[in-house]
Structure formats: C-alpha cells, structure tokens
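Reopening this one. Same input as before:
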Amino acid sequence: QVQLVESGGGLVQAGGSLRLSCAASGRTIRYYHMGWFRQAPGKERDIVAAISWTKSSTYYADSVKGRFTISKDNAKNTVYLQMNSLKPEDTAVYYCAADSGWRTVLQQTPSAYDYWGQGTQVTVSS
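Same output, byte for byte:
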C-alpha cells in the first residue's frame, strides 16, 4: 500500500505561485506514474498533470500548459506541482495520485490511478 499526503495549498492572489508537494510512504513510487488532479465544487475530478515513472514523459491539461510543472524526486519519494501565473479558475481541491499498473502510456482518467491523497485546497483570489 502507498499513502500519499499533499501539502502546499493555500490562498493566493491571481498571478501568484504555489508549489504543491505529495509525499509518499509505505512503498517507493519510483516505478509508478504519478498524476495531479483537481476538483472544483460541483465539477468532476480532472487531470492537471502527469509524469511517467521514468520521468521522461509528462502530460499537462491545456488549461495549465506553460504555467504548471510536474516533477518527481525518487530519492525523496515525492512529487511536486509548481503552479505559476495562477488564475481564479485554478481554484479547486488538488489531489495527488499514483498509477501502479505498469502502463506504457500516461493515463488521464482518475479510474486508472490506484492510490490517492486526501487533497489540498488551492484558492486563487481575483
């Protein structure tokens, strides 16, 4: 089993930055694809970014391309999401997730991910 704990959320003004962290325990995530998802009130949980276990491939939702960066530190068993130029529409609960399915392609749907954190709130004021 893998336990994921997100941190780094908070309240920020539009144009500001936040760095989310996802610390894993219980098992190494070295061989897992990792993803960040977000869910706003009344909306579905959507993928924000994902990174392959080799760290050679990344995926970004169109809405965050050029503003967000996902990274993975295997030595620290931690995944990060650097969020710059934040907009009010980025307001949501952000979740970290792990895909342990040994897939060759990064997955974008929540159902492909086996382990989830509890989420961290990000609020961007205008």
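So the earlier flakiness isn't reproducible anymore. For the record, The radius of gyration is 13 Å.
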